[in-house]
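User: Hello! I'm new to structural biology and keep hearing that structure can be predicted from sequence alone. Could you demonstrate with Reverse transcriptase? Please show me the input and the output so I can see what each looks like.

Assistant: Of course. The first part below is the input, the amino acid sequence of Reverse transcriptase. The second part is the output, the predicted structure written as tokens.
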Amino acid sequence: MEVILKAAEGSAGLANLGGGYSMPPLKAFMDDTTIICSKEDEIRRMLTRLDVLMSWCRMEFKPKKSRSLAIRKGKVDEATTFTVAEQQIPTVSQEPVTSLGRWYDSSMKDTRRGAETLELASESLLAINKCGLQGKFKI
């Protein structure tokens, strides 16, 4: 996978994060890949290049398992959609995604996540309290 990503990395420049900061357009961990670009046409070029490279390797993307998020002027842009393998990639507002145990959606806010964490902790503590173990074993 690393060879494929290195071959595709040249189809887009560094992503401008503002304030003089930039980062490479591709981030990957195991079989998860994130594309970050400053311009929409760079993302489209990168997706096309990755699709060609994957087809050469007789592999394919699963757009249904992917998510896209376009941000313009600090707000989520619902009108921008991306395609790979001639299929549309769902946006995070259509289908939220989880990564490393955390849900991401189009709200771009963490306030709901705090309440969800508190609720999960309360439910877990109640479940532990109801189990038949003695107090010292509940820890």
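User: So the tokens describe the shape?

Assistant: Right, they're a compact way of writing down the 3D structure. Reading them back into a model, for example: The chain has three helices and ten strands.
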